[in-house]
# Entry
Amino acid sequence: MNLAGWQADPPNERGLKTKIISTAWMALELLLLSGCATRAPSPTETPAPSETPVPALATSAEDVIGIWQEGDRFSSYSNFLQFGEDGTYRVGSGTLTNLEDGPQELGQFTLEGGLVTFVASDESPLCAGQSGTYEVRLLEQGRLGFSLREDACSYRAVAGVLSFVEPLSP
# Structure
């Protein structure tokens, strides 16, 4: 074996290479170990969903007797609904006086088990002789909420006259 052309690295170059390799290796080890050392974030408790109370059903005619307004109380045009103590109802649009002077609908109502049934009179301009049933709920701030069950009168069912109403008088 001829080692005549072979020369060893000078001592300080060999030490520098060793230090660089050693430092790089340690940095790699630290990087790998730091990945293992991190803990997963601790799970946080998910708050329980807040339960929105379901408004109570209207259970008797006394719950709805009075005059009710749909829409903005300060609007110049609204829909009005009147439930009478004698089991009659009237619907008027525009102004409150239209309940008496020119109702768009009038007839009899019954309220049982949270359901109000309207039966329009034969003289009712928009729903003559037609009946409809709605679920009635007592909402916040003294309002009533109506949910359609079935209705032969498209004026009531489609026009949304009975979506919710606010009390004007007891």
Q: What stands out?
A: The chain has a mean pLDDT of 77. The beta strands are 56-57, 66-70, 78-83, 88-94, 105-112, 115-120, 131-138, 144-151, 164-169.
